[in-house]
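YM 10:42: DUF4919 domain-containing protein sequence, as discussed on the call
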Amino acid sequence: MKRGFFFIYVIGFCLVLNAQKRDFESVKYNTIEKNIADEASNLFYPKLMKRFLESDSTFNLKEKRHLYYGYSFDENYSPYGSSDYSDSLRGVLKKEQLKTNDFKEIIRLGDSILKEEPFDLRTLNYQLYAYENLENRDKFKFRLNQMKVIIDAIISTGDGEKKKTAFYVLYTSHEYELLNILGLQFGGRQSLIEHYDYLTVAKNDHGIEGMYFEITPCLNSLAKSFRK
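YM 10:58: structure's back
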């Protein structure tokens, strides 16, 4: 199967936002941890996750940021984990030509993966492709809205051009997916600089040589796994 569709549904959406002048805000994890534990608040994490799983379209930016970055405090957060269903999904996607039953299988397997990892951008995108081919507009909009919530949170943190304005991500996989969203290609080299990932990017019209990503939750999770 050709991979050219990857993130095609949100590239235009994000490039418009990226072109506008935006005020970036770094992530204060200690503040987020405190806010999402307040049961009386609209930022209480179970409330946010329930709304996300229902594809609520009324999230404001503060809520989106608490939803995405607050997941780093969830017991199920596993930035380097992989679902048992991922291999089966890749098997379907390797087919040269996908038929109706294949698109249905992408949705079935994708649903299983998203139950384990609700912020899996790649799986969300695969499902968008499947729903479009099945002409299921309601489900397409449902997943697209969820994807926008995640992306809005990430791009509110920076532009990636330097450490001070790095994109904050919960998964290293989101680094590569964000490059695709911005119309950039990975240049082949990755470096860990303090608590930042730096990815080089291929030659582009914007003269961008690389992007910075803040990955503190990933590093904390990795360190915790080594202590077990």
